[in-house]
Amino acid sequence: MQVDEAEFFNRLLDYRNILYLCHRNADPDAVSSAFALSEAIGGTVGLVDGCNRVASVLIERLGIEVVDKPDPADYGFVVVVDTSTKAQLNDTELTSYCVIDHHTTTALTENAEFYLHRNTTSTVEIVYDILKSMGAPINRRVGIGMLTGIVTDTGHFKHASVDTFRTVAKIIEASGVEYGEVLDLMAATPQDISMRIAILKAASRVELDRVQDMLIASSHVSSFGGSASSMLINIGADIAFVGTAKGESARISARAKRDAVNAGVNLGQLMEDISNEYNGTGGGHSGAAGIDVIADMGDILHKCREKTKKILEASLGATSKDISSEDKIEETEDE
Ligand SMILES: [Mn+2]
């Protein structure tokens, strides 16, 4: 059952020993949402399976106490934070739980006691509305965490809405944090050597499809697929698919520019559709999504490319051409 902000925290007040559970490889949005709720209502921040680098810097700098791989049975109630599928929880069995989330897919809400789902650009923004309705203060640590969560989830405000900026302003006002502090914290995050290698390999292995002026880049890496996919967008792709093969299964990280989304590419929907064909899990946002399936990575990547080409051809009215091999690349403009 969907509840509103006031009802959400009212219900949480009925429970003792709450676990705020973040998805695997937790990001700043998940960790900061869990941290803000635990500070306001009480309880423990739990990571299903580690966190990413910016989140680990946050945890260290803000001194956030976290429990890695907690056993939900040790807690009175579980609040699943910023998570939409069971796979993101490594299929952890949950008996009594609620969900607070902003993803377009909502598989986890089905068996939840109650949930709060909003189409915000981050979970932090939903948490802000809860704190506001509680009249809870936002201290500096919580403020820095929340702002970092919003900045990272919106791709440095690339996907921000007018509500995002409004909430950011209110968090800055309430917490006394300066935006520059948040940027400094993120800039201090070291980049892993293996991540830089993966990203460069992804770039060197790119295969391109072109529909009118839209470029679809596909590649593969052994890890850091999400970062590699975002990087392909940054260096010129309109849509990027990066595959990672893990034993029998394949993971695809997909990203799209706003123009591609406006042209009808909804990656969350695309990933959900493909995952249904393979009994896997997939979903996310229109501009950023992922899929986990038991299948050959090459086949899934091919499927992603073909379906995307069809969508673009239908909306842009052109046939695609394969420009993977160098001799076919037309360089009309030299820059
Ligand atoms: Mn999020």
Fold and architecture overview:
The protein is α/β, with parallel strands linked by helices. Helix content is 42%, strand content 20%. Strand 2 (44-47), helix 3 and strand 3 form a beta-alpha-beta unit. The longest helix has 20 residues, at 297-316. The radius of gyration is 20 Å and the shape is globular. The termini are far apart. The model is unreliable at 325-335 (pLDDT under 50). Manganese (II) ion binds next to loops.
**According to CATH, what is the topology of the largest domain?**
inorganic pyrophosphatase (n-terminal core)
Biggest pleated sheet: 7 strands, mixed
Number of helices: 12
SSE sequence, one letter per element: HEHEHEEEEHHHHHEEHEEHHEEHE
Q: Give the name of the CATH superfamily of the largest domain.
A: inorganic pyrophosphatase (n-terminal core)
Query: pLDDT under 50 segments (min length 5)?
Result: 325-335
CATH level-two architecture of the largest domain: Alpha-Beta Complex
